[in-house]
Fold:
Amino acid sequence: MSRSPQRNDARAQIAYLAARIMAEDGIEDYGLAKKKAARQAGIADTRQLPGNDEIDEALRAYREIYHADSHREHLCELREIAVRAMTELEAFSPHLIGSVLNGNAGKYAGIELQLFTDDAKAVEMLLIDRGLDYEAGQTSLYSGNARITVPQFTLYDDGTTIEIVVLSPREARLPLKTSPAGKVIERAKLPAVEALLSDT
Structure:
């Protein structure tokens, strides 16, 4: 069933406002940006909220119009940090994910990496050996509706947050998501990120 023109217009308006909020305020949380945008637009019907893909498209268009040069420079800096971190962690098959990969990184965006190893302790030992300050914790991902709890390390590079999630090599073959209803996480190995950096 097709959506009504009014509903399409409302979704497009919220997507634009959410994109502007994310670009100007540095908000990375799509849900929060959607809620703020809906309030600004005076639209209470949550069925009219756009999907994250629609906001990504609006965000790319907004930045191309208003922040093309500064965003490109910021994205280049983040990808340089990502390449440096991935090179340091190369023994653990690092993959870049998130907004630094897809090009929609905001002003406060961090770098998100997935590592693949059966020995999460070896990752922590490398961080200790390099004298890096870090915080250890856990996070959850989903394969279908199955929840997977995995180790997570947070560290910083010149004020930029680097979130490292450690997965087993077996999990590299799973279509992982951040929520049961979410999209499969896209990821890229070091050579692909280096190629992106040269094109940024």
